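Treating backbone geometry as a discrete language has practical consequences that deserve illustration. Part of our work consisted of pairing the sequence of a single chain with a tokenised description of its backbone. We regard such an encoding as a compact summary of how the chain folds. The amino acid sequence and the backbone structure tokens for this protein are reproduced below.
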Amino acid sequence: MAKSGSPLDELALVVSGDVAGVADPTDVRILDVIHDSRQVTEGDLFVAIRGESFDGHAFVTEVTARGANAVCVDHILETEIPQLVVADTRTALGPLAAAVHRHPSRDMTVVGVTGTNGKTTVTHYIESLASHAGVATGLIGTIHSKIGDTTLDAFHTTPEASDFQRLLGQMRDAGTHLVATEVSSHALEMGRVAATQFAVAGFTNLSQDHLDFHGDMDRYLKAKRRLFDELDVATAVVNIDDPAGAVIADSFGGRLITVGRDAQCRHSKATSTVEGTEFELDTPWGSASVNAPVIGRFNLDNALLAIACSLAAGIPFDDVVAGLPHLAGVPGRYEVVSGDDPITVIVDYAHTPNGVVEAIAAARELHGERVIAVVGAGGDRDRDKRPLMGEAASLADLAIITSDNPRSENPEEIVASVLSGLDPSVTSVTEVDRRDAIWRAVGSATSGDIVLVLGRGHEPTQDIGGQKLPFDDRNVAREALEMARKSTDSDVNSGSMGQ
């Protein structure tokens, strides 16, 4: 019987490495590739990555005791365990994992979506459209991952390379045909999707975010372009209304599908309500009048990109059109949490200046009365973005500036930084406690007003001082709405008794 697993000498060829510490590398078989020493079990190859806080090379003794069959290192160590020596272990991680899991992306249609805003919504829409068309689907992203109807927890927008390839392998083995995955700039910079074959790669937009990691906008764009310039992409679907998208489209050498006002895929005559949007759809595959449960121009743009990616991935036009009225809502993405209340309350993940601008603009399209926006900024992240968040909040009729996820920082200092960018002529309230801020926003609203709770979306916890405390904006907003209803009922009853 043939031995299971991948021979170490074959893996060495994949990453141009050398094998040390074993006479016959063909006898060393690898069952899985692991980057976290705590997860190593018998038969694994542990890849020792140098990180900001830890150096994986320090855990070689630990993983040997755990039963690892070999370690991947960037220099020869004094150890008895077989070693695969490479120039850069992080660069090797993705190709090694892809090889051990038999290159799962080659057996499925993988659709990757990158951009500052909209990745989660677009991938969820693609998965929804494909599933409605009868395609077996998988989803990888910020909120969660899915294999068919099975939901898995997510720890990164895009998992680490070893986890990513393992997850793709599980999807393939479960019979998945199409995978929609978010591809973050961090993932591209750190090689998390290396050795992945993308049937389709989509681009949403680029605006300021993550500059604490990338340094400046040029390097941020360069990270996004890696998906199109350096990876195996058959078809690019690009929003050319965005200047960065136009740059990507101009330089892409493969099959290109453009999305935008004057692009191959476009929408027109859009009319939005709190229930959804009617619009005309024009694509190279066909045209149709459709109605989809998406609110606002930016979400319609997200839907258009999802439509184009789905069509490029081979889903028939008629099936895509039939699926649009049934698009599944995305948790915490412009999610309406009010019912038949006299006010509308919407929770959204908008955590960038551009995202806040678009969220407020979408609320204006609903033709309500005032727009009340709850806005903050995260701690231990891009500090230069904070005044811009305040500037964006200036578009609201009432801006309530509060904390987001302060993490290790003083929330009052973060709030002050956001407030520094707010137009002083705009009516505003400062309320550092986020729960009080949401309650105040709902309590301040009168009939016809639209309340936007922005920044955290689906997140079930708030990170304060290193602790993740239970806190869901949607639940807090619903509690505030319930109190507002009781107050209204009490006022009505009191009035009746007085007559």
Notes: The chain has three domains: 6-92, 104-326, 335-486. The chain is about 35% helix and 25% strand. The longest strand covers residues 232-239. The domain at 6-92 is CATH 3.40.1390.10 (Udp-n-acetylmuramoylalanyl-d-glutamate--2,6- Diaminopimelate Ligase; Chain: A, domain 1).
